[in-house]
Amino acid sequence: MQTHFKFSALAGACALCSAMAQTAPGEVIITGNPLGSAQTAVPASAMGRSDLLERGQSTLGETLNGLPGVASTYFGPNASRPIIRGLDGDRIRVLNNNASSLDVSALSYDHAVPLDVLSTERIEVLRGAAALQYGGSAVGGVVNVIDNRIPREGLSGVSGKAQLQAATGNAERSAAALLESGNERWAVHADGFDRRTGDVRVPVSLACDKPGSPAQARRICNSASESRGGAIGASTFWDHGYLGASVNTYQSDYGTVAEDQVTIGMKTTRYALEGQVRQLPGWFDRVKARLSHTDYQHTEFDNGAAGTLFANKGQDLRVEARHRPVAGWQGVLGFQVESGRFSAVGEEAFAPFSRTRSQAVFVHEELPTTWGQFNAGARWESVRVQSLGNPALDRFEVGTRDFSPFSLAAGAVLKLSPTWSLSGNAAMTQRAPKDYELFANGPHLATHAWEVGSSSLGVEKSNSMDWGLQWKSGPNRMAVTAFASQFANYIGLMNTSAIEEDLPVQHYQGVKAQFRGIEANGRQRLWQNASTLDLDWRADTVRATNIRTGEPLPRIAPMRLGATLVYGQGPWSAKVGADWHAAQQRVPDGSVATGAYTLVNASVSYRQKLDTTVLQWFARLDNLTHQLAYSASSILTTTAFGKSPLPGRSLKLGVQASF
């Protein structure tokens, strides 16, 4: 059930809130927070359907990229994950309806997240104490992708949506549809989507060895894709709860761009069961549970011939129990059980067959006060990581490691006046190493290295703090946040002087590391009459250092400054903005520096009512000046520089019909 929260975010999420919130100014809807308080100190933000309609991309990372503090791993246009405050991979927890997505996107940069915004209702970002509910791997944050495939509220009659869109830059042709029906006792849901793109247009001519493609063209070679998926779900409701189930599939065939003839064929099927019981007698007021099973696999093809097959099968069970207020405290207790079985079959398998099991208990508490709010959270985990080797390859170590991570966080928001507030957050987080960090031993072409794990690694430990100042007066608002994270055992790939099969050897090692940065954003009303004109502005910078060597850490986004003029009049709205990215010269040995660039974007939308149907027409022009640019946070900039610049100019047109 969606619950309204007033905007008083702590940590850097303040900046994200104003950029992503789709509710009235100063308010944001958050379903990921388990409490329904009218005020929260929990850092939270949400991107609703209207923003996804206008700015949604084919990957999760690119959809969120550009928000203050959020960058993208950008392995071409078909694979990317979010980077939050310089942290990526398994330090960013990607969820689907509060449950683990159980894919292998964190294993390699060329592995896509099996989620598409065409079938998404909203995307939420959580940090701080609330993020601990979802595991130690949420040290960077939680990205929760939410759909309505399991209806959680009764419906009235029949409703639906249909969407069509096309783009010039990648010859995109996409369609999506959703249909729901029900009453106060039952509801059913069905949806489907299809997205097809060609090679992406860029401002420079690039070579291409892919059969059937021109040898030289202003396109990113091997960047075409085809994705499709759908789901059915149903729920039954009673006076104090609901029970529902769903099954969904996602398939994608896409080029990896780093190699001209390598493509990936991905397929995942997910089954989910969810229910909630409210108004219980005794100490607990309500209990919510969700059980999911995921069957994921993808095959890497070289010039059409099947190569390495990656597979992951897993289950996730999560139970939350909300207790009644005790001495003013409101909170939830919960437990989570997650298991996964991974395999990689083929000569280029760089990680062994493995089994990972984890059990966790967590608590999240909030105390509303007259001066603001205090919140705290803790999570205890038991994690077992087992390497099973590989029946076809004898290079992998076989063994088992057990870990007991513990994480703790606390935060507060202090009201200084009706318009000003201060926020702060402190967290101690521990993360168990992943299977590939412990047992990898093989060629990883996405990183262009021979990766070697270390079975002696301990838990990754970090201490984080941030401080924020927020101001809001009518439609005007501003937020500035400073943050710092200190890692006692930051697990990363470190260069060595060794060579294996013509590839440089890189070892997973734990080092001391530090992340520091500032985020800021705001909105200023410039004009208000029959129409409105606002100026949205944003800025962020991150500095990450390997304390052991004094070198900067790789793939850190540079300083970014941006501004957008937002015009609205009746059913019309229009935006024009620019984002400047500084040159990133602060890179470790072996990495490639990137130059400064500016991206200019513009959009316009019109909302049209036709009886019981509402049409939302939209047009968006990306990279208006056709600027040549390379992403500092993409590993391709180092391993395959020049093969995959950022997309050039592209016009996207679309319409969504709601009834």
UniProtKB/TrEMBL annotation:
PROSITE patterns: TONB_DEPENDENT_REC_3. Residues 235-624 form the TonB-dependent receptor-like beta-barrel domain. Pfam families: Plug, TonB_dep_Rec_b-barrel. It is found in: Cell outer membrane. It comes from the Bacteria. InterPro entries: Beta-barrel_TonB, Beta-barrel_TonB_sf, Plug_dom, Plug_dom_sf, TonB-dep_rcpt-like. Residues 1-23 form the signal peptide. Keywords: Cell outer membrane, Membrane, Receptor, Signal, TonB box, Transmembrane, Transmembrane beta strand, Transport. Residues 39-142 form the TonB-dependent receptor plug domain. It is a multi-pass membrane protein. Belongs to the TonB-dependent receptor family. PANTHER family: TONB-DEPENDENT OUTER MEMBRANE RECEPTOR, TONB-DEPENDENT RECEPTOR NMB0964-RELATED. This is TonB-dependent receptor.
